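anyone else get weird line breaks when pasting these?? whatever heres mine. first is seq + tokens for prot A
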Amino acid sequence: VLFRSHLNEFVSDQTKRYRFHYMDSANNLIMRWDSSPHHKELDTFPYHLHIGDKTLPSPHVTLIDVLSCIEGIVLESLKRDE
């Protein structure tokens, strides 16, 4: 299973912003968690998740949360390939 990731997190006393990309080996976006202040219609604003062309509510996540999610996806994929 090949995948790529792009991780960006900025933390200061006043601000915590992040952008975590999970992509396939051809650089197609699979999922992106971010805290950009758009999508004010979501209950979890500014936190949200992009899956394909959908934007979904998402709680605030940490890098550990994202890596755990990706690990689950990869392990499930490996089980299907057996």
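and prot B, same format (seq, then tokens)
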Amino acid sequence: MNIVGIAGIAVCAAVIATMLRRYHQEYAVLLSIAAGIVILLEIFANVTPAMKQLRTLFSASGLPVDYLLILLKTLGISFLAQFAADSCRDAGENALASKMELAGKISIVVLSLPLFEKIAETAVNLIGG
């Protein structure tokens, strides 16, 4: 599916959710979440070839594959956290959305700690320590 199809799903879901919101707020939220999941699944299906290309580029550059894994996991965490936060906002739970964004940021920092450690080790070696 291309961007036109994804945009069509998003616009149709938004229009239906807006109409549902007048009478059944809970159904409108469920529709928004379901449409978001369908869109994410379609995006992930289209991202697979790009992942293969990234893996090829990383192997050609001589960088460890661990760096690519950290990059991909970080992207996944940020997309998932943003989707969850947006879904919470759609449900009117702004405080919960903020906590979800904070959890995503902390998860990214924790995931990146080995990379920070490697950078610090390299800096110490360059300084001569």
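btw re prot B: The first helix runs from residue 3 to 23. The CA atoms of residues 1 and 46 lie 8 Å apart.
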